[in-house]
Write a structure and sequence with these properties.
Helices cover about 65% and strands about 0% of the residues. It is mainly alpha-helical. The protein has one domain.
């Protein structure tokens, strides 16, 4: 039986981080609050499950802990206005990111740039 890899490559880490940032933005737009720690954990598990990814605990914690800070930086400085229509449009019906969305592509690029050069063990 093959096991899933425990460490994700840069692209997969950037996609998970983008998903978590988008989830923070959506929750903030809908409720006025950021995702709770419990919901971040749940969102991480959902993404990993639906994308067949595997990440060790430290990798998941590291990415999850960065998502809120990126969301807080992105929202006020972005060229995209993250209103309810834009944020809802970041997701497809199956709660996957919609990379046709300019907001998703901009968020992904910011997450990718953030991760480049970081050390992963």
């Amino acid at each position: 039986m093959m096991s899933r890899p425990l460490n994700m490559d840069l692209r997969a880490r950037a996609e998970l981080l983008t998903y978590l940032v988008a989830s923070h933005l959506l929750t903030r737009e809908m409720t006025g609050e950021w995702l709770s720690v419990e919901h971040v954990v749940e969102s991480t598990k959902l993404w990993l499950s639906s994308n067949g990814g595997g990440a060790d605990l430290m990798q998941r914690v590291h990415l999850a802990s960065q998502a809120l800070n990126i969301a807080k930086r992105l929202a006020p400085t972005s060229t995209t206005r993250f209103d309810s229509k834009t944020v809802a449009g970041m997701f497809c019906e199956n709660l996957r990111l919609d990379f046709r969305s300019d907001a998703v592509r901009e968020t992904y690029q910011m997450c990718l740039s953030h991760l480049v050069g970081q050390r992963w063990y």
